[in-house]
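Hi V.,

Quick status before I head out on leave. The structure for the redesign project is tokenized and pasted below; the design run finished overnight.
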């Protein structure tokens, strides 16, 4: 049923709560798993040097790649085929776009499970992804012990 599964990660323990679910689906269906992290562009600061901003962006990209490779190594030890991808832009836009372009069969991500005013005020990447995605989305609700 699923051949290409994408899990969106942001480096947080909350996001990683979806990993066992994505891994189980990957194993169950013999699928390929992609770990996706979207880097938001750094805000422009009037007094910052373009060279310093570029260096910070490069460092951020390297840290993201190192993080994803570490997660991928743990999954590969379980015998799962895993690839890593980092993109830059608005997370919900890039997650939806990537899943569609790669013809993903399933998109997995975690959610805090906020509702009401908190959700409206803070926004929800998961909510925006669900509303914008054209592929099935599996949301894993954060357990009470998650920190963020």
């Amino acid at each position: 049923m699923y051949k290409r599964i994408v899990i969106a990660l942001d480096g947080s323990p909350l996001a990683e709560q979806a990993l066992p679910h994505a891994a189980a689906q990957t194993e169950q269906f013999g699928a390929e798993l992609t770990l996706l992290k979207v880097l938001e562009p750094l805000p422009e600061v009037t007094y910052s040097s373009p060279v310093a901003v570029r260096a910070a962006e490069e460092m951020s990209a390297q840290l993201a790649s190192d993080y994803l490779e570490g997660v991928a190594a743990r999954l590969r030890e379980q015998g799962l085929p895993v690839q890593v991808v980092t993109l830059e832009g608005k997370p919900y836009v890039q997650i939806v776009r990537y899943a569609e372009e790669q013809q993903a069969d399933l998109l997995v991500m975690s959610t805090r499970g906020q509702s009401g005013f908190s959700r409206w005020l803070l926004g929800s990447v998961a909510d925006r992804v669900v509303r914008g995605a054209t592929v099935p989305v599996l949301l894993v609700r954060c357990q009470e012990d998650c920190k963020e």
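Above is the designed sequence. The longest strand covers residues 32-39.

G. will cover questions while I'm gone.

Best,
W.
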